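Minimal example, chain plus S-adenosylmethionine.
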Amino acid sequence: METFKHIIDTIQATQNITYEQLDYVLTHIDEEKAEYLYQKARQVSEPIFHKAVYLRGLIEFTNICKNDCYYCGIRCSNSNAERYRLTKEQILSCCEIGAKLGFKTFVLQGGEDPYYTDDKICDIVRSIKNAYPDCAVTLSIGEKSYESYKKFYDAGADRYLLRHETANEEHYAQLHPANLSGAHRKQCLRDLKAIGFQIGCGIMVGTPGQTIRHIYEDFAFMKELQPHMIGIGPFIPHKDTPFRNEPMGSVPLTIHLLALLRLVFPKALLPATTALGTADPLGREKGILAGANVMMPNLSPVNVREKYMLYDGKICTGDEAAECHRCMELRVQKIGYHVEDSRGDHPDFVL
Ligand code: SAM
């Protein structure tokens, strides 16, 4: 226990992690040691975030995707997926419902759907910002050119989420077809940051072939990138993908990593993801108690929820937006935290 504690204390003090430290922590951790780690993560998080959990209203506006990622249920070659797109009016009515519930951030997420040209995205962003000027708009629509990202930013988009999935090129190639590269995805993140977006990167935990060395490389990449937000959740297989028979990522490992991320990136926004809540009914609460501070209730119309099926068993597909919002509020309160109705920008970000 003493060695473990010493390593955790060093990670906290240096806000950095070596491969040897990561390997030691992940291979020696047990319940008692995990509690020490989580307690440290809370100790780092509380003076900065004061037990606040920020809510983001998630609008899954298209499940049409030109990519064929091996893990993803909306990959283009899944002919069983029933495809949909939301109109601008439908997106705006999701925002209207969200604004009434108190959301100050809307996250527009979708597959890489060529129907939504840059002009269409900019028009949607402008319309949301006109209607809700005090709200932040986050885009999560995949890999685009620097010029496209710049147009989105100039139209008023504030943030961009693009998980890098894995920092290791060979591992990236195990998860994606040859037309996609980790190097390009990383470049997109650097472009987004240079343009001025608050950016979110992240990984799935437990994807086929993932090793502790890969996870260390993720930490190293993120140390260099300094993202504002880091989204991690367990990989969950989807029945209509090449990874259908692969095992689900570990919930405890995801929680340990959230806590380590909190020690290395004290001010980062760390979501307790839907995948974590799908893999374990109390996964999101456990995530918050290990340093996570963001939740993303679903604002998509209920009739499309089941169609945005990235993995099997995805939760919250039947609840109306208001129910989702209330449910998150209660879950957060139950563990002694509170949801905060603010934009929830990164602490170093000045408007
Ligand atoms: N198209 C955009 C992009 O590429 O960033 C956003 C949508 S994409 C479906 C959002 C995220 O879902 C991915 O970055 C991936 O990490 C996650 N995801 C996809 N399939 C998953 C699975 N089977 N298990 C867990 N997470 C998954």
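DSSP finds 14 helices and nine strands in the chain. Residues 31-49 form the longest helix (19 residues).
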